[in-house]
Amino acid sequence: GDAAAGKAKAAVCAACHGADGTAMIPTYPNLKGQNEQYLVSALKAYKNKQRTGGMAAVMQPQASMLSDTDIENVAAYYASLK
Amino acid sequence: GDAAAGKAKAAVCAACHGADGTAMIPTYPNLKGQNEQYLVSALKAYKNKQRTGGMAAVMQPQASMLSDTDIENVAAYYASLK
């Protein structure tokens, strides 16, 4: 994925996951430095409604607004953060 | 949760997620320093079969072997890792 493009797309993510990928609220996961392929897998699982429970009611609609390319880019962005 | 008790229970987790919480394989998530409450939520979602897709076929049976107390302890252990 393209981390620079992902950064632009990730503005909305930052409200919960933090501008630096450190979550604002402890029920949310930190994303900084997470494995890119895992983040792609997780976002696609939310998009495909394969994750329910927990905060999935929030993440399903968020992920549904991302194209597969968006998902790859956002994943690359968070994976790149230290 | 009790991180020391969680460490003992987490031996099986380390095969994929690493002894230090850094995943061995990029499709798996790193767990070190992840938020404890998020880890509890995620493990319970796997246990309750609320997560499918991705590696959920592996995680559902793993989580099903953990009691709620085990889940709290394992979450405390990974959250404690730097």
Would you kindly provide a written description of the structure presented here, covering whatever features stand out?
- 2 copies of one chain form a homodimer.
- The first copy, chain A, is mostly helical and 82 residues long.
- Chain A has a single domain, classed as Cytochrome Bc1 Complex, Chain D, domain 2, CATH 1.10.760.
- Chain A has 5 helices and no strands.
- Chain A has helices at 3-9, 14-17, 36-47, 56-64, 68-80.
- Chain A is globular.
- The mean pLDDT of chain A is 96.
- The A-B interface holds A 23, 26-30, 33-38, 41-42, 44-45, 48, 50-56 and B 23, 26-30, 33-38, 41-42, 44-45, 48, 50-56.
In percent, how helical is the residue content of chain A? 40-55%
Number of domains of chain A: 1
Which structural class is indicated by helix and strand composition of chain A?
Answer: mainly alpha
Described by the principal axes of the CA atoms, the overall outline of chain A is: globular
**Biggest sheet descriptor of chain A:** none
Beta-strand fraction estimate of chain A: under 5%
